[in-house]
């Protein structure tokens, strides 16, 4: 018996044989959002619509366009909205979380494939849960907003039959080691050559696609580090398989995210460094809630359990990845000690904690001087910082960018607040009147 | 409703900072102190060359692609975008 299997709690997986699996193409409402059951396989993600507006439900109020950073959601002839082209959509899903009518739908949903794999005794199913999921999943089960359910998430995944409860908080810690070291190398080289300064973070798939699409000249500034889940996928199929004595061919990795853009990331053709697909499926917080409810598990009454340790144990620095400013704070906790050789007495670096917009901070590190960083929340703001970097007027060392306001905890895959769904009667009435008027104009 | 949403964003973020500072949830607060991270990079470990070593570069680092051509094509068709 390997070290990893010996340390695992004895919790039994439940019998899923009675749980019905939705057929491909079925449309199911998951936590108020309609999802089409569809596992794209090896499809080029650039051709896929991960979200799309249902014109039959859209009232043309324009709230989605308002929250779309790139202008991808535009008006059609009859006043309803649609996405003009997948290449312009960063897949952030902010349109979806802000639509008062539930008219924005998801078009890629692996829930059925994941259930099939969980039922299959020959598949070793690995869970890879993002930090932010554990700050919102409880809302789907009547718990107050912001309740931390990290221990219950591990417990529920074990009951659902995931064979290894590994965790992106562990690879968030690994990311800090890799990305922090990369930053120190860039600083040491004075930002010369093909590794310029400032370095941008690379965890957020909306931001990465944005940089590749609208600021491709700044690609050398992006950290070459994969995101935590894109590190855990290949590590699960190499290191994890080795540690557990598992045939990597049998391993099926499930990325569990507060995000829609992570579905795009998981499908990137280059994410195959383990010798096979690194990430087999991606679901979000709402879809996990759907699976839990389908299985009939009483989530709120579960005990707290630990992740399986070798690819699962994490620190507080890792959980910070769920919030805007968190990657920066975690990186500074590492960089401070790595540069100065001194212990950082108080790990809380509150100056970088950011709700929205751009926050520029200078942190004094003994033996180095000021480390100049910026935390950016939102792609409109990111564009402003990109313009500075492009113009060569930025003196920063490190910039964190998150697409969603406040970071992943408010991502497009998180439970949607009831107050958004229940738009005011007046707003609904105005939208209906506008739609009829527009349709008459066209007709 | 806008105020309610702002508050919602704020509450989830605060919950993250509370968890980081709660030793019952996270006993350690620095990535470099994680024993399972130390084991990964230790001598004889899977990534024994340390962060940004050869195996790290193969498994944990990536490359990016210029995706601007599509955008230029859309703009040439007269579609207006924010950037």
Automatic annotation (TrEMBL), chain A:
GO MF annotations, alphabetized: ferredoxin hydrogenase activity; iron ion binding; iron-sulfur cluster binding
InterPro entries, per database record: 4Fe4S_Fe-S-bd (IPR017896), 4Fe4S_Fe_S_CS (IPR017900), Cytosolic_Fe-S_CAF (IPR050340), Fe_hydrogenase (IPR009016), Fe_hydrogenase_lsu_C (IPR004108), Fe_hydrogenase_subset (IPR013352)
Tree of life domain: Bacteria
Domain 4Fe-4S ferredoxin-type: 49-78, 80-109
Keyword Iron-sulfur carried by entry: yes
The keyword Metal-binding belongs to this UniProt entry's keyword annotation: yes
Region (Disordered): 1-21
The entry's keywords: Iron, Iron-sulfur, Metal-binding
Protein name in UniProt: Iron hydrogenase
